[in-house]
Amino acid sequence: MNPISRRDLVARFGLAGMVCWPILKASRANAQAMPSRKFVQIFKGMGFLEPQTRFYPGATGPLTAQVMNSNPLLKALAPVANDITIVGGLDYLRESGNPHGMGQSVVFTGALASIPPSGRAVDYTPPKGPSLDQVIANRFYAQKPTIRKSLVLAINPNNNGLLGRISFPSAGQAITPLTKPSEMYDAVVRDILASCGRPTMGRPDAGVAQNVSVLDLSLQEVNSAISGLSMGAEEKAKLEAFRDAIREIEVASSGIGGSDPRGVDGGVAPCPTMVTAPGDVAAFDVRTKFALDVMALALYWGVTRVTSLLWAGGQNSQTFPFLSHNGRPITDGHHALTHFFDPEVGLAPATAKEKLVLIDTWYMSQVAYFVQKCKMYTEAQGTTLSDNMAMVVGSEVRDGSTHSHTDVPFLIAGKAGGGIRSGRYLRAGSGSNSHNNLLVALAQAMGLSDVTQFGVASRNNGSVSLL
Amino acid sequence: MGLGIWFAPTHAMRVALLRVSWVAVCWSLMNCDGSMPMPGQPPAMQGVEPGATGGQAGGMEQAGGSGPSLGVGGSQAMGGHTGAGDDQKQRELLALAETIYPVATDKAIEPRVYRLTALELANTLNALFGAGSVDSATLPKDSIAQGFSNFAGVLRLDAGPLQRYLDLVQQLTTRAVQMPSQFAGCNPAEDTCIQAFARRVARLAWRYEPSAAELAPYFQKFNQAKGSRPLAEALAILTRSMLASHRFFFRVEERVAAGSKRVLSQLDQAEALALTLTSQPPDATLLADAAAGRLDSTKRREHALRLLETPAGQAKLSQFALEWFGLADYEFMTKDQAKFPEFNDALRKEMYDEVRQFATSVMRTPSTSLKELMLNRQATLTPAVAKLYGLPNLAAPQSLELSTDRRGILSRAALLAYQATESETVPTRRGTFILGNVLCIPPPQLPRDANISLPNTGGRVLTKRDLFELHVQDAACKSCHELFDPPGFAFEKFDALGRQVSTERGLPINARVMFMFYPYSTNGHVVDGPGEAIDDMIDRPELYQCAVRQAYRFGMGREESDAANSLLRDLYRSFIRSNGSIKELFANLVASEFFVERSN
Predict the structure, then answer these.
(1) What is the predicted pLDDT for the residue at A192?
(2) What is the spatial distance between Cα A449 and Cα A446, in angstroms, rounded to a whole number?
(3) What's B202's DSSP letter?
(4) N-to-C CA span, chain B
(5) Which sign, positive or negative, has the C-alpha torsion B96, B297, B584, B553?
(6) A456 class by beta-carbon count within 10 Å (0-12 exposed, 13-18 middle, 19+ buried)
(7) Is the pLDDT of residue B237 over 90?
């Protein structure tokens, strides 16, 4: 494609074109610079059915073709075998309470939630510590702002309590995810298409460009409020988060941020082929594909360097009618299926297990799709987006049928710019089996070498080497 | 004891404390050993007549019998339940106030920064741009804590949602300034008009009267814009700037110096009161009293009673009822399409509309009575919801009275379906919901290494109750399940879609159970089915104290702490004396000093 001139962009898109041009031009320039690292955090609810026999390879070591042919889940991942790392043998910090809520709290934070007086599972407050994506996002953003500090998405949050959240900026706080394709489109796709001179769907006046002229006063005033008012730290943090949100939008709007160096053939990235978003109530698989496309696009175009996706929350009732079991769509809810041992589920355990394998396999096929997509995006110095990212897929339990918090599988994808040696199956040693160790290893793989502990201090009891 | 259970650090201790509390209550209330009350017994217990509960040691009795349970059977037309009007019954309930809220510390709550909810922001925008301009359901979903959508601790505004709000305001202003004079209410080319307009926007969106100095930068921005752009655009920029301010999104209460106490300013009081009771900015009447410095406890109460009779106030009380009864996240409910082919998005919405309509209709009655909410059988049903209620031949929406097993909010299809999985009922889920949410008796947490497998039935066909009763033959499971399964068993006569059923897997459903979970009143009642189960909860201190706790959480947007106990105790007493008027409960909450005092 031809590079886009600022004049063309402004002529076609007015103010929006003008303000987006510098960001996106810079994003697609400077092919010689070192590619930056990116981080992806994905939550897959309900664990894996019997992972010891149905997911994990038989032995640690390289993910050979033979290994990847050994079960349906690995088969689904076979196209990206060299780009993934499977980590087993890790345990979660545990406490009494709903195992789904507790697991969802710790999976990316290494910290538990507190149980409120009502004692209800879905009412757990957010965990007592930040999640890995937000820690990394804060660091990346401080190094160099991007249009969005992080892109937090969910397909089926299942509820708006803890079980519907996986990104936590600080103790007791959760980020509300974007859940609708239209929101994701507005957040990422619209401006990229505009910068390419492509038509966009929906309202022509949405997007960062509109905020240029109205946020300056807001920023001044909230800064005055923060410095001038006397408030407790937790309360002040809410205004500080608002201030950061304004800054984030303002930076993106004014075009002084962005600029993640990337690109091919002289620094020009191909324009996305995606032009529309599916409906907000489209099927789960359709919305999944769109969200994954948006995430890859956002990382590639430098909209953000950190993104998270809650696929379906812990203890979710997601159905999978687009999957077929013996010629019939799977209309059972995921959580209910994992309770196949309960006669009340009304399914023979063998039948439920067959369905669960189909579901887990579908999830893995989507991971493979995403990684393949990232491999197609070429970045500086002959690398791909996949080479420069680390993606972690985790769940709130090992296996929904046992609610176990031990030997929880983690799937990692990408090479983190050399921070991860992929294509292997690892198992944590008996002295290093706290999953907090993996969170530390991932932070370090992202270049946060000073992060030597994550979450509850006592859980940092060893190390996991991704190299 | 009750609060001690909540804060016990371990599962084992919580279970133990719960048991000890029952023993203590049993001892004091039931005269289990036939002796005189124990020395040192909490004074509140002494208000209960031994004769009311005597002779029950180790035995059972039918619901509605003697004892502190003041069961009211049957159903009457809306407004027909007169509440705990009997003096003796009231005395019994009142006597327990100090037992339920044992700590009376004199400490105000700490100040806070409160981000307005999506509903509150939508209402504000509708006040500015015209009714129906914004549907709060389309706004970014706020995080929920404790089942409530307005918990200040988890409400924040990150870049993604903020961008959505800015985009929305962009759209609204673009449309509004197409007729600038109409939008401004005067000729915006005149300075006096712009000043009046900005003050009006501030009163609505910032919820107070700003100083000239606060507005000056906005006028400057308007004038700058006016110099280079059309007047309408300048007006839009002025409006957008004001709606991008933290003053629009947040209520900010300043910190108080250590050891001191501060009363919120009159305007802050007006703002807090209006948002709490209507989810809207304060109206002119309230603002006038605030501006004149007239808001005191009496005035706040007057305004509260006035506002709670407006549609916005009634909607807010209805929202309280729906969130208390666990429906804040109802939108996510799904059902197995193979098992429930009739379930779809339209039915999900109709089910919700039915329960919302019911709750709102209760909140429109003069009494706004808790008993109405728990017992009333009136319903307005669409044909599809009517089918769930066993009325297959309804041709059009109709108001009618439901069967005697369908009493109040607990028996509505939406709630019953939401407290089931997508395919099945789970007695434990409904049971823990009733204990934790409806009665505020925190159910014990699942031990971290609990075996959740149900027993192998060897191919025998069993009801879920049979299955769970096999499960609790394991002593480790029994101690908890015997508490929270029985209320679930009582509701097994409703399936996972909320339909009434009498058999399960071809076997008759046995919904006869004994309730053993009341920490403050008589245990050992036998009830048969959901109707009797609900009757058994009525007039119990557990239900009233839970209504008070939940109203506090919803009204204050935070958890209660020991510091709130003296307020909770007062609210409990006044709630009992008002025959369980939910409107009075909220009016007394905002009238309290606690509502407006802040300390460090």
Answers:
(1) 79
(2) 8
(3) I
(4) 27
(5) negative
(6) middle
(7) yes
The β-bridge relationship of strands A424-427 and B61-62 is: unpaired
Q: Which residues of B touch A335 (CB under 8 A)?
A: 421-422
pLDDT the model gives residue B19: 44
Residues in chain B: 600
Q: Which has more confidence, B54 or B142?
A: B142
- Shortest distance, CA B140 to any CA of chain A (angstroms): 7
* HEC profile of B327-355: CCCHHHCCCCCCCCCCCCHHHHHHHHHHH
CB atoms within 10 A of CB B304: 26
Angle (CA) A411-A391-A386 rounded to 5° is 115
Alpha-carbon A55 to chain mean position: 22
Question: Rounded to 5 degrees, what angle do the CA atoms B102, B13, B475 make?
Answer: 130
Token pair in block for residue B95? 């006597």
Partners of B253 on chain A (C-beta within 8 Å) are 235
Q: Do A403 and B452 touch (CB under 8 A)?
A: yes
Chain A partners of B246 at a C-beta cutoff of 8 Å? Answer: 218, 221-222, 225, 239, 242
Residue to mutate among A46, A118, A281, with most B CBs inside 10 A, is A118
Judge whether B59 and B524 are in contact, CB under 8 Å.
yes
8-state DSSP, A92: -
pTM of the model: 0.86
Contact criterion met (CB below 8 Å) for A360 and A421 = no
More confident residue, A47 or B1: A47
The pLDDT of residue A347 is 73
Q: What angle do CA B458, B460, B463 make, to 5 degrees?
A: 125
The two beta strands, B398-401 and B378-381, are antiparallel
Residues B121, B279: Cα–Cα separation, whole Å? 8
- Give the HSE-up count for residue B97: Cα atoms under 13 Å, Cβ half-sphere: 19
In chain A, the residue whose alpha carbon lies closest to the alpha carbon of B445 is A97
Residue B81 has pLDDT above 60, yes or no: no
Closest CA to B50 of B70, B35, B69, B65: B35
**C-alpha dihedral sign at A52, A53, A54, A59:** positive
Q: A152, A158, A214: which to substitute to probe chain B, counting the most B Cβ within 10 Å?
A: A214
Distance from C-alpha of B403 to C-alpha of B531, rounded to nearest angstrom: 9
Phi, then psi, of B107 in degrees rounded to 5: -140, 130
Q: CB–CB of A331 and B437 under 8 A?
A: no
Average pLDDT, chain B: 85
- Which residues pair with residue B558 across a beta bridge? none
Determine the distance in angstroms separating the CA of B464 from the nearest CA of chain A, rounded to an integer. Answer: 7
Percent of chain B with pLDDT over 90: 65
- Using CA atoms, how far residue A37 sits from A357, A417, A441, in Å, is 33, 6, 15
Taking CB atoms and an 8 Å cutoff, what residues of chain A touch B446? 96-99
Name the stretches of chain A with pLDDT < 50.
1-32, 203-209, 256-267
Provide φ and ψ at B512, rounded to 5°: -90, 120
